[in-house]
Here is the input.
Amino acid sequence: MDWGLQNRLNRIIKPADNRTVMLAVDHGYFLGPISKLEKPGETVDPLIPYADALMITRGVLRNCISPAEDLPIVLRVSGGSSVVGENLANETLTTSVADAVRVNAAAVAISVFVGSAYEHQTLANLAKLVDESIEVGMPVLGVTAVGKELEKRDARYLGLCCRIVAELGAHFVKTYYCDEFEKVTASCPIPTVIAGGPKLETDLDALNLVHMAIQQGAVGVDMGRNVWQSDYPVPMIRSVRAIVHDGASPTEANDMLQELKHAGETQPA
Ligand code: 5RP
Here is the structure.
């Protein structure tokens, strides 16, 4: 791997432990102003000290995040459909690699919709993006999107998606946790991070999800709603970090969460 590309990837997936806690706030690109992300700058600001990278669109980055922040940016560069439109899978490249370089992105992210009517189009988008990105040493994150069909999230389907993303040249892949997740990571030759998906009933449910994914081969998370839709976003991301980077069990991480909650900690130490 070229020095610049590897260096960018190392800023996201920390070489000290080969792990990452990415914070995803790109949801508005197809969902609009969803709950707790109405003012993304205010949501993100207290979480920045605890995130290894921020997944975001160029519009929110330029308007809501200070360029003084020293946080690797994973720039979402695909989109073009909305939750009220005909088909979420009908995505195109919405941001050029030149603009990703201009905002000093550490990686670019694109969704693929395997098995959808737009499978070929979104996989071709990925291949084109890889060709253009490697020219400038920019890693590509492939996102195995499922649109509204959450029931698609089984190991056979996600294993297929992750493997295709890797075969087309992406440098890391974001997918969902599922039963037999170890089969997904075992057959995927690039690092895997998991999305959290819609907010789970409890914070402990989300911590369990993170722990199971790490135990079964994920290098980390690229999580959004289960962090910033929690009633305690800062304690939550710190507890996620404890699992991902410090090997905490879900119980230990949950104890930490309760302590931070009771200490009234909502701001960085
Ligand atoms: C949408 C995305 C989101 O960033 C992703 O879903 C992560 O956020 P969450 O943990 O809320 O699911 O890539 O395609």
Summary: The chain has a mean pLDDT of 96.
